[in-house]
Amino acid sequence: MFIRSGELVIILGGKIKIRHHLFKSLRLLLMVMIIISGMIPCLIIRGVVLKSNEGHIVSFKMAEIQNQCTILGNQASSSGLMSGGVSETFDAELTQFSNIYNGRVLVIDRSYKIVDDTYGTDIGKTVISGDVVRCFEGESISRYDDKNSYIEITTPIQETTSGKTVGVLLASISTDNILSIQDNLEQTIDIVVITALVVLAVLSFFASMYIMRPMNRMTKAVQSMTESYDEDYLHEETFAETKRFSEAFNKMIERFKVLDESRQEFVSNVSHELKTPITSMKVLADSLLAQEEVPAELYREFMADMSEEIERENKIINDLLSLVKMDKTTTDMNIENLNINEVVERILKRLRPIAEKQNIEVLFESFRPVEAEIDETKFSLCVSNLVENAIKYNHENGWVHVSLNADHKFFYLKVTDSGIGIPKEAQEHIFERFYRVDKSHSREIGGTGLGLAIARNSVIMHRGAIKVYSEEGEGTTFTVRMPLKYVASAK
Fold it and tell me: Which of 79, 155, 354, 426 could hold 69 in an S-S bridge, CB 3.0 to 4.6 Å?
């Protein structure tokens, strides 16, 4: 087994298996995070316990030695040692103290000379240090040197009658036994920490396996859904997160189903719509060809019918081409500063003859002159589709009201009709491609389900917004909001 370029390479039986992106595994990441989250407190507790224990032992040891040194200082004063006398009893006490605590004791007089030494090597030598000087001023000093592993206690020797400091007792005690205790404690804590980490690693393995089990089930469910949209939705409610993911995924699948059904239906409808005019034209043409002498009136009638079928075919093709153009990027936008009132007037002038066939009145109300930066072709597609739909799905002798208004930042176009309206459940789908509310009615009037999709795409490409308000049987209102200044999106 070896690692190459961030990949784990495992050699088994002469065969090489490469595990790509091993460290991108969510399960491994969970295990590492759990172990680290347990390791950090363990290491912190380890350091705190060791440091606290060391401080506690040293403090206890220093207090104990300080008491012993105070007792020895009183004995030194009473034995007459500081006045030049020799006390074998006091020497024995010093030797015993030195042996018990594995240290060295010096007795220093007022002239900073060593008058007694448990090692017996420095008697008569002079000792001058800051601790000794301060001790002659009556201050007891305790100091722990952890680097050199010793405790140093400096205690004043005072006369029992006057209380005057006549000497200093300097004790240096080895802390090797403290270090030994610390080492034993450290080994014990290390064993506990290692055991805890092993247990934590095992628990993290099973915890990650438990956490990842719903993810694995969801992965298998998603993989099984990629082939087809069946009735088996994702139902994983082990955790709140997996439940939310399942709900979101099921909504997405439901939407895909609707879009897929809409596409299939669109293909069927468009095939029928494209085939019907061709079939009609073929029948008309065959009828003309089958007759040797065709009257001019009949010939003109047949040609007029063929012209209508060609126009119907042309409309379907134009809708498809418009939608394809809308799928292109905004770099194809031909932005110009135009008078919106005039643009809308031209569109309505072209559509009024269509409305007149159904006795539908088309009204235009402009509240103020509006100039904006738009792509005229794409904006015209939006307005044409909205007004044409308002005409198509209207009642005979109905009306269509188009209004234009603006503020300092946006202009607003509203198209209201007295038509059949849109059911509540269909309003959230009407801007989807290929979607048609009344399929039979749409086929009768030549609808393809692309008009509102084209209108919405046009509005979005202008950085605008479109909304619908409708009550079934009471008419529909579409509102379009577009910025007066076009701002291209940043790449």
Answer: 155
